[in-house]
Structures are given as C-alpha cells and as structure tokens.
Amino acid sequence: MNDTFQGGCYCGDVRFEVSDIFDAGYCHCSVCRRLSGAPAIVWASAPTRSFRLTQGSPSMFRSSENWERYFCSTCGCGLFGRYSLAPTGQQDFVSFNPYILDNSEAVRPTVHIWYDSKASYFDVTDDLPHFPEGTR
Length: 136
Known about the structure:
Elements: E1 5-8, E2 15-18, E3 23-27, H1 30-36, E4 41-47, E5 51-55, E6 59-62, E7 67-71, E8 78-83, E9 93-96, E10 111-113
Parallel strand pairs: 3-10
Antiparallel strand pairs: 1-2, 2-5, 3-4, 4-9, 6-7, 7-8, 8-9
C-alpha cells in the first residue's frame, strides 16, 4: 500500500505516520498473547524508512533478545515494534497494530503467524493462510 496513514495511541500523546505497508496478519505467539491479554494480536509491517513519529516520545522495552516494543507511557497503548538487531538478510521494518491508525479498517490481515502457538480454545474460522511459525 503506497498510501500514507496517520495513527497514534489512545490518549493522543504519541502520533505517527506510515506508508508502504507490505504485510498484515494475526500473531498467535505466546509473547504477543501475554502482552496484549488477548488470544491474538493484529499487526501490519512497513519499512522503517516509511515510519515516522510525528508527536511524542514512546517508551521502549525488549520483549526478546532482538525485538523492541514501543508504547505510550501515559495510556499504555502498544504502538510498534522493531528488531534491535535485524537477522542477516532480514528487511529493516516496523510492525504496528493497524487498529491504532486513524482509518482503522484501511489495512486488513492476510495471514496467521505462529499458528502452532495459538490458544487451544481460540477457534479460527477464516480462510487466511496459517503459518506454524513467524516466517513464511
């Protein structure tokens, strides 16, 4: 998607813009489930060069050795994540929740990742591709 989108946290302290979105899906990994308190999260990805903070300064913590997660320190909204050390051959990208975009339905999920980690009670009834792990 070549359109430019604006988004931000719930309270409005942190705002961003993003373009060139190339991927979107549901993540069922245990880390995302635990951090969100939900059976899956929705994410979208764009090249780092296409993501820009326009207001505020989010807080950051590492949820794994190589992954940084950014959130609003006022309202707690999860904003985006990125590799602190991108694996060799890995594109430099930012992942964010498309539902924090001002036009929250502009980006639709197209896959399920870490499907083998999904909560046993969570029934997935769509026809999107399922990938056992995070890579395709």
